[in-house]
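S1.2 Input.
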Amino acid sequence: MKVLVVEDDPGTRSALGRLLRRAGATVVTTGDGTEGLQHLLADRFDVLLTDLHMPQSDMDGFALIEQTHRLPLAHRPRRVVAISGEYNRHVLRGQTGVDFFQKPVDLNQLLDTIGGLAH
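S1.3 Output.
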């Protein structure tokens, strides 16, 4: 399973990457939505895991998710997971196919949600 992690906080980004790698995933990490979109256009990912609130980024998680829905089918991840410490799941009302986790993320539940990874 190939996972793209888009998270502006270096500590959280590193921890998520380590967890997913230990669970058997191939992981690519980046710190902003613009770079995340570039990765999605250049490669195929099973899962996009993105922070919603990235104030220093040109593109936050909301915009990245919106752009993801506009990608050609071959470049859309099979699963999109949003994480946030600032927002709750209600901010994604109307977004279909997006799972949500409040920070701090329950790592076992995250692994269960994205599926296909041994833990």
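S1.4 Remarks. Residues 2-114 form a domain with the Rossmann fold fold (CATH 3.40.50.2300).
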